[in-house]
Structures are given as C-alpha cells and as structure tokens.
Amino acid sequence: MMLDELQEGDTILATEVSRLSRSTKQFIELLELVKEKGLRLVVGSLTIDCRTNGKMDIMTEMTLKIMSVFSELEKQMISERVKSGMENARAKGKTLGRPATTADDIPSKFMETYKLHSAGKLNVTDLSRLNGMSRTTVYKYISLIEEQLKN
C-alpha cells in the first residue's frame, strides 16, 4: 500500500480530499501520518508542508477536516440516491444488472476449441488464449456447457 512506502520528505498529491480516503476517520488518520512522517500533502490548490517542523497550521487542518466531512456526506447522499433509484426501478418491474449468460450466448469459436479441451488436447490457459478471453470466462462457459450436457 502507498502509505507503507512513504518516507520522510515525500509528497502526496491528490485532486480532492475524496481521493485520499473513504471516511473522515480515515482522512484524519492520514493527516496524523503526514505529521508523523514529515510529509508534504497537496490537495487541489492547497499545500500542507510538514517536512520541516512536523506541524500543520490549525486553520489548514480544520479546513481539510471540514472538506473531508463534506466529501463523506456527498458520498453517502449519492449512495442513497442510487439505492432509491434502484428501488424505484424494481418497483416498476425493471430488471437490474447484467443479463444472465446462457449456453446460447457462448461464441461458436469457443465451442469449436472446447471440443479440443474436452478431448484433453488443450488446457484452460490455452483455451483462454485461443479465444481471447479471461480464464474466469472460460470456466464459466465450461460450466454452462457441462450443465447443458447433463440435462
């Protein structure tokens, strides 16, 4: 993690407070780390330099903490709006999320190469490489094919 690699005199650069932490508590812990390790913190146009004396101006610290509180509040409001929108969509009968993959969705090229795999001529990595897809997708397709063959 980045924080573990920081050394005295390093600089942390971010466009806004929300990019540095997920919560106000986490951001305050980051500010303490900046002071302890004598770091320089640049957030947008605001620069905090703790490299020389390990201290931070009280007004700057307060401003950053307030920015963090508002950032967390904004994140919570967005989350609530998204959840509300999803509930409204469900109430209207809309299906959310990615459609389920079925055996009919499997590309014909995969079906051809799967025959080589089932004959023991290709392993999953080779099957993945030949079809230009991740191993996870290959396993999903294999599972769908084998399930279809059982039925």
Automatic annotation (TrEMBL):
Q: Indicate yes or no for the key word DNA-binding.
A: yes
| SMART domains, sorted | Resolvase (SM00857)
**Keywords for this entry?**
DNA recombination, DNA-binding
Looking up PANTHER family in the UniProt record yields:
DNA-INVERTASE FROM LAMBDOID PROPHAGE, SERINE RECOMBINASE PINE-RELATED
Source organism, top-level taxon: Bacteria
Q: Which organism is it from?
A: Andreesenia angusta
Q: Which residues form the Resolvase/invertase-type recombinase catalytic domain?
A: 1-93
Keyword field contains Cell division: no
As one GO molecular function, the record gives: DNA strand exchange activity
Gene (name only): hin_1
Q: What is this protein called?
A: DNA-invertase hin
**InterPro entries attached here?**
Resolv_N, Resolvase-like_N_sf, SSR_resolvase
